[in-house]
C-alpha cells in the first residue's frame, strides 16, 4: 500500500541532509517532494538533491506572475507554495495564507486537521518534505531520518 510520510524542517540544510539520507536508505528521488513558500529555498533543495524541478504553479509565470510577485513583495497579496517532486503539480501555486495549501494537501491524502497544521508551517517558511512509501517497513526508516535531521513536530509550529 502506498502512503505518505511528512516531515517539517526549519532550515534548508536539514531538509537537504534528510533527503540525501532518504536516498541513501533506498527511497528514490522520484518519491520525495518538498514544499514551502520560498522559491529560492525550493530551487536550492531541488538542485542539491535532484528531487525534480521546482514548480510555482499556474499563473506564476509571465506578466501575471510578475504582477503577483510585486504584490507579494509589497504585502498586497498573500504568498503561494513552491514545490518540487511528484507532489509539485498538486501543491505549487496554492495560497499559503488562506486554505489553499491545506486543501491541496487534503487532495493528496493528508487528513484535514493535519493539512491545516502543515499549511501553517509552510506559511512560516518551514519546509515540508513529503515521502511516498510503498512498504510499511519504510515508515520507520523515514521517521528516524527525519528525527536525525531535526524534523519539527506537526503541532505547535
Major β-sheet profile: 4 strands, antiparallel
Number of contiguous helices: 7
Beta strand count = 4
User: Which structural category fits the helices and strands?
Assistant: alpha+beta
* Binned strand content: 5-15%
Amount of helix: 40-55%
Measure the end-to-end span: 30 Å
The largest beta-sheet arranges its strands as: 1-4-2-3
From N to C, what is the helix and strand string?
EHEHHEHHHEH
Segments where pLDDT lies below 50 for 5+ residues?
A: 58-78
What radius of gyration results from the CA coordinates?
Answer: 15 Å
Coarse shape = globular
Task: Please explain how this structure is put together.
The chain is built from seven helices and four strands, in the order E-H-E-H-H-E-H-H-H-E-H. It is of the alpha+beta class. It has a four-stranded antiparallel beta sheet with strand order 1-4-2-3. The protein starts with a strand and ends in a 9-residue tail after the last helix.
Amino acid at each position: 500500500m502506498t502512503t505518505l510520510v511528512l516531515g517539517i524542517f526549519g532550515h534548508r540544510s536539514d531538509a537537504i541532509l534528510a533527503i540525501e539520507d532518504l536516498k541513501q536508505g533506498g527511497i528514490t528521488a522520484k518519491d520525495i517532494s518538498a514544499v514551502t513558500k520560498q522559491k529560492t529555498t525550493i530551487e536550492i533543495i531541488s538542485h542539491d538533491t535532484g528531487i525534480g524541478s521546482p514548480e510555482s504553479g499556474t499563473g506564476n509565470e509571465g506578466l501575471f506572475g510578475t504582477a503577483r510577485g510585486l504584490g507579494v513583495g509589497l504585502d498586497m497579496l498573500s504568498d503561494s507554495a513552491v514545490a518540487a517532486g511528484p507532489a509539485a503539480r498538486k501543491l505549487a501555486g496554492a495560497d499559503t495564507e488562506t486554505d489553499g495549501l491545506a486543501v491541496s494537501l487534503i487532495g493528496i491524502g493528508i487528513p484535514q486537521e493535519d493539512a491545516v497544521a502543515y499549511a501553517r508551517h509552510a506559511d512560516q517558511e518551514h519546509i515540508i518534505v513529503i515521502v511516498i512509501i510503498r512498504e510499511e517497513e519504510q515508515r520507520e526508516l523515514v521517521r528516524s531520518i527525519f528525527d536525525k535531521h531535526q524534523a519539527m513536530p506537526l503541532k505547535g509550529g
